[in-house]
Amino acid sequence: MYDGKPFLQLFLLIKKGLIATIAMIITMVLMLDDIENYPISKMDGNMLMISIYGSITVALLNVFQAICLFVYLNNTFRSIYVISSYISNTLLVIICTSRVNDYSFMYLGIFSGLLGIFLLTYQIWCGRRYHLVNHP
C-alpha cells in the first residue's frame, strides 16, 4: 500500500506488530481475570467476554493491516484498510478504558490506539489536502 516509502512501511509494521502483541496480552489478562474472579457467578461475564472477543478482533485486524502494507491495494481494499484501522484502534481504546482501573498497563493500549487514530486521520487529511491543491 505504501510503495516507495520503506521507512514508513517498517514503522507501520512495527506499530501493527506492537498493537497486535498488546491486544493478545490484554486478551490473556482478561481471560485470566475471567477464570480467577468469575468462575461460578459470571457477574461481569458479558462485558468481559465482549472485551476478550474485541481484543482478539483487534489483534486479527492488525495482522490483516500488516499484510496490506506490502501488497498493492485497489481503491476498494484501501477503503477496507482505512475502515479496519479505525475500527481496531477504536476497539482498543474502548477495551482499555473499560479496564483501566484494574490494570495500569491499559494506558499503553489507550496511548497506542489514540496514536493510531491520530496518525490515520493526519494521513487522510494530508492526502485530501494534496488532492484539493494539486488536482483541481
UniProtKB/TrEMBL annotation:
User: Where do the TM regions start and end?
Assistant: 12-32, 52-73, 80-100, 106-125
Q: Which UniProt keywords apply?
A: Membrane, Transmembrane, Transmembrane helix
Give the protein's recorded name.
Uncharacterized protein
Q: Which species?
A: Oenococcus oeni (Leuconostoc oenos)
